[in-house]
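Handoff note, outgoing to incoming analyst
You'll be picking up this chain. Sequence as last confirmed:
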Amino acid sequence: MYISHYDVRLFYKCPTLLYLNLHGPQDAKQIHPIIQRRKRYTRNSFLDSINVEQETQKTISQMEKAKKSINQCLISTNNLVAKVDRLNKVDNNSNLGSYSYRASFARNTLTPKKPLLMEGVFVSYILQKILNTEIKEFYVQKQNDIQSINIAEYFADFENDLVLIDEIIRGEKEISPNYVRTCRVCEWRFYCKKTAAESSDLTLISGIGGRIKKKLITLGIEDVPSLAQVDLNSLPKDLTNNADFDFFVKQAKSLTTKEAIVRESIKFPKNRIELFVDLEGSSHHNFVWIIGCLMRKEGEVDYISFLANTPKEEKEMVVSFSDFISDLGDDFTLYHWSSAEPQYFKNLFTKYSLPFKMLNKLHHNSFDLFPIFKRKIILPLFTYTLKDVANFLGFQWHDPLADGATSIVLFDKWYLEKDKKSLQKAISYNSDDCKALLIIKDYLSKKLSAD
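Most recent structure output, in case you need it:
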């Protein structure tokens, strides 16, 4: 059974994903709308479309002819096979003579993350076998820039990982899930979350990934309940010096007791007008299509949306929102979730050369609700998304399965196909986001008020 570059990349992205794609219950997969729109590339679509021996021989024949570069080629040895963007001829002795080849990958960054880094190690490992020479680097190319990546230090550990990858592919080694932030758009996200919850896996704690999990397990801390009982003074300093570790233990206690833990009180602004704002962007033409605003004034609540149906309408939308803010004076607070909204406003005001005085006013009167969680209050939650927190507090979206990515898909359907129902659903989702912010702010005011 072949081990392909696809398998290696997936293993270093998530070993569980590699295992589940091959051996998991396929009816448990739920493809996220964003992933569904992408061209699906799998190990089977790659391996089923080629004759490995034949394509490898074509590549070797070009090597023997001392081609300067060989594009989109296949290399293999034993049960290892990889497709390579390019092989570049270099001066280095090999079984070909006084020259050899190095792999080059075309990417949008010159600093590859681990999956691509180890894919480069894998390809170089195969080349070493074919060319009978030591290879210490591969190349990453971004347009006209080329970066050499030194990989000599990775080969020893990689050979051990190859054994594990082979066991996973054959179904001889099952990998338990680590539930982390990147799981949110994975087709196995619900299955892994359920599986992790059943075993009280440590990665259910927001911020604990595979690396910290391994350290904790070596100390006999194997699940959330055992973490909840930990005495910080009994742990090695390299762990307790981590500023997040006190949170990890308290989060475990909150999950175990199913109760919120208040860490600090906080003073909220006392402005007469409260705005709960959420922006959404389109994946086409890179523009913001809605600024949603739920306004609470003297007990009355009203949802106002500023729309841009096309990129040409974006400036008019931003100006309308700016005028709306200007009419409010200074007696308002703009509540939002995370740093995305301030960055959106900064980009839009810069893009259209709008007065920075108004931008400064927005920033001065803005209040980010997201950092309060974990720092000031801990909830019995696995993740702290807007939807997770609001759902915990009893708020329900009109479409419980919708999320930010779904909103993008809905608007794009309107933008590309003029589907009015999709637009209304996207606006409704934005409205629910704004209402969720209000629910969260009121909960925090009640739980954390310093007055």
